[in-house]
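Board notes, transcribed. Complex of a protein with iron/sulfur cluster.
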Amino acid sequence: MDRQDWMHELANAACCARDFSRAFSTGQDYPDLGGLAARADLAAAHDLLPFLMPATLLSACQPVAGDPVLEQFLPRPTEIATSAAEHADPLDEGQHAISPRLIRQYPSRVVLRAGSACAAYCRFCFRRSMMDDASGFISDREIAMACTTLSRCEGIREILVSGGDPLVASDARLMHLLVSLRQALPAAVLRICSRVPIVLPARIDSSLLELFRNIGRIWFVVHINHPRELYPEAVAALRRISAADIPLLSQTVLLRGINDQADMLARLFGELVSLGIRPYYLFQGDLAAGTASFRVPLSQGLSIYAALRGILSGLELPRYAVDVPGGLGKAYLPEDIVGRTADGWQLASRSGRIGMYPEEA
Ligand code: SF4
């Protein structure tokens, strides 16, 4: 596969109603697709998280309302409103920043926000208010600053390379970043958090895998939410990662109307294990501004997880986790629930601090 393939596909990804419509047109027309096409323009019209879908991802969608893949990326009118419980920075990452790109919420690991761009934008993204393209991919100067900070930190065993999606950067930029991180903390594991195997599978090409091999001690965490995301091109990309001896984990967000059924999630996790991918986290939705229509009530999430426990093996069952509002860190469900009030759930985070997550309708 040519390295240029993915760059060309990304540069030509659908970013407006006209592009979206053309992707499903059989002629020269621009079908309305029952109002779906117009939704693509909501993002620009209301200054929301951008709309972007590469051609391969579009090929995995049906142009109908409710399609579980399409609904994750096509803007919704409900995104315009922010509920009282929602925040621009729902994990309060700002309070844990140790340098402009580094977030240290736990003693043993640090998150590096490499950039603010993605190959496709998930409407429920918890960083959706921080996707400011102006900040771009991390610069040489910022890499040097981050590495200086890291080399002064004690006890960090893992660096989560996140974004946006770090893999939308060129191989050269990525190489400079990863080599610098490796030199700053030689013993640390690098955890690459990415959605590109699903949304832009051509990005998983031979030169990227060679880069990973040269860096070493990389774990790959793929974000995947529905069995339909395991379409042939995505599966082939995941197999290429496995074939390069890079351990694969998955993380999944529980999404209303998309994957909020135990049997469907069980199928997803079973298929992931059969591909050699360990389901790692099932996340309760974060309280990001404009994402209420995606969140599953926590009580329903607990019922779904209880059903999954009865269906899945230990290998197939991910941890059900929630980031406790207020920047308190993760809580595991149901074991970290310490109380219930009329408004919500009292949760003891891994740091031992107690916070509230609302029970929403
Ligand atoms: S790929 Fe990740 S960072 Fe990008 S929009 Fe989706 S959830 Fe957010």
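The CA atoms of residues 1 and 192 lie 22 Å apart. The mean pLDDT is 95.
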